[in-house]
Specification:
The protein is an alpha+beta fold. Helices cover about 55% and strands about 15% of the residues. The chain has a 9-stranded mixed beta sheet, with helices on both faces. A 7-stranded mixed beta sheet has the order 1-7-2-3-6-4-5. It is elongated, with a radius of gyration of 34 Å.
Length: about 750
Amino acid sequence: MRLLWGSGRRGRARFLLMTLGSALGVACLAAVLTIPSILTAHDTRTAAREPRQGASDFLYQEFRDPYGAQPLHRVFLARTGPGRVPVPPGIGKLPEAGEAIVSPKLAEILAANPRTAGLVPGRVIGTIAPEGLGNTEDLYAYIGTTPDELTEAEELGGFGTGRPWRTVVEPSTLSILRFTLGCIVLLPLVIFLSVCARLSGESRARRLAALRLVGLSAKDTLRVNAGESVTAALCGAVLGILGYFGVNEVMARVGLPGLHWYPADGRPSGWTLAVCLLGCPALAWMVGQGSARRAALTPISVRRTGERQPPRKWGVLLLVPGIGVIGGYCVLSVLGRDPSGGSANSVLVPGAVLLTGLGLVFGLAPITAWLARRLAAVSKSLSMALAMRRTEVEPGSSLRVVTGLVLLVFGASLTQGVLVEVDQVSRRTSPVQEYTLPFAHLSERQRAEVTRLAGVRAHGMSSPSWQASPDDETPQTYAVVATCQQLAVFVERAEECVESKVLRIRDQNFSTDAEAVVGRSFPFLLSNGRKLDVTVPQGSVSVRAHQPSEFAGPSLLIPPSFLPPGVSLLEGNLVLVSDADPATIRSVLDGIGAVAPTAGVDPVGIVIDSLAQLTVIRSLLAVGMVLGLVIGVAAFVVSVADRALERRGQVAALVLLGARAGTLRVVQVVQVVLPLGVGLGAAIVTGWLAESSYLITGGGSVHWDWEGLPLLVACALGVLCVAALASVPMVRRHIDPEHIRRD
């Protein structure tokens, strides 16, 4: 440390830069490592409140409905005797009949919107504590009632199950998510921390070589270097942990789309603290030992800039098995074979992806050196020759600049693949999404408002024909009320439709309704108390409905003009339709929740929990990409600044020899653009192959993500242009005598 502080402002600035770089890296590492803890804490609390069957003096019945795009969970409880009373976590006692205990978020909704009072009948006597909730936005309620009000009650034995029934992210998807976050964050993070540990590597090596030449032993020379690196990394790790604590406290109150947590959930565990506080200094020590070994063993060659050894080619060998496996899966798909399924895929594909990522890191140096040697041999430009010769002699310094960005593009491909695969699993095959709302739950004003919501493309009605009682054996059929234009939006194909006429519906995917005989009349109960008699006509419309759909299976199409103004089908549903992308579905559900908060909404064909899980996955992958971007950009900035400082002596020598400013800037840009271009090109190709192999083995219908490839190429070109522009100001032509080498 005396040697460091005595080396002037440059040494202290380098130490500060190493410390801040390590702090940023450790903060990102802590964020990634605590994501599973946040999910586990949520699932543990929700498992502890799950009602279970048994023997007690209480009955219970659960309801889980969508409130907008969020799940609303209500547990109705009824006392049957004076005996034992089980209590769930988060509340002191169970509510009696006419009472309710709700989550704080649900209490806010009830207070802000009086129309939601129908969701929670009874007087709210308290709120649920955090230990009884999954997160800060949880909509949960315990509602007291009488046994007569429960239609499908079960006897309550207690609360708490061994494992959660409803997890934030399914275990299989969570494994994929962890692997993806590891690739897009942890791999670049290791490179970034290595870069921080090797800042000013050339000047540090010369300083260590001087110590070795004046009599310090090789072991003590390595200890001197390790002392500086480990101290900087340890100070940075402490600062990074403190910074993460502050960020967690803020983000826990803000949350992410679909994911909220309590501040205690995101605080690092003892294992995470150990990894951050010990792992970062350990990595710095290993990197420092490797970088200082040459100065300790051959100090004269370091001081006199002896001939450098060419980069080792073993890193390229890592690409061979990695590309071989992922390329093999792609070839099988092209040949028409389906390699999905089987336990081997769960090992081969992740292993191949890791080998490919490591191959990009360790294989770029020999590839870049070989390419630079070839380009320098045929180049007629002085700038190109200077840049290529420097890259050939020292490819490692250039690669430290670009490796983080290369891995970021490679990880972006994997992220796209995961999003495509998850989207296939959770998305309907239909291009449209329907929502059914019972007319009994809607007022006339609410019906008008929900049909005008943003994203709603059309609306219609559906209803069975009227029967006097459930035991009535009179024929019954099902009808939809819509115009031909509305029908065309709901179904995939509609032919021979005639406006303002009752028509029979013929769907090739459904057998003919035996009850809907031509000439038979069916009564439909209207909201004004009257009945509408509809006779089955001879004319028909041929449709092909989406699956599933409210318009798949009905036998009659009734034009809206047959209904009196302001009158609806009393026993029917209002049916809305929108596009099927998740953002539109969420927007429509939120709009319905705002207009008709107490109405039962059935998003046809989807489960609200799946929609919420997709939102969480997208948020976590977005966080991973942001962290990867921060790490990649930080590694680039730190490396470019450090490299510019290290090359001041070389720049000074070139200026003395007469090199112009334009020549020096071109040399600087080319030295960055060449390895970055090679790396980004390799990352796009290998990343797309890795993404395709993941999609192929996943068993989904999409094997080739052609839509994501142009975006990836455009991002890579943007990175290349920004890196080139950022390299220009790093060249200074000011000659400092201190930088002139006199060896």
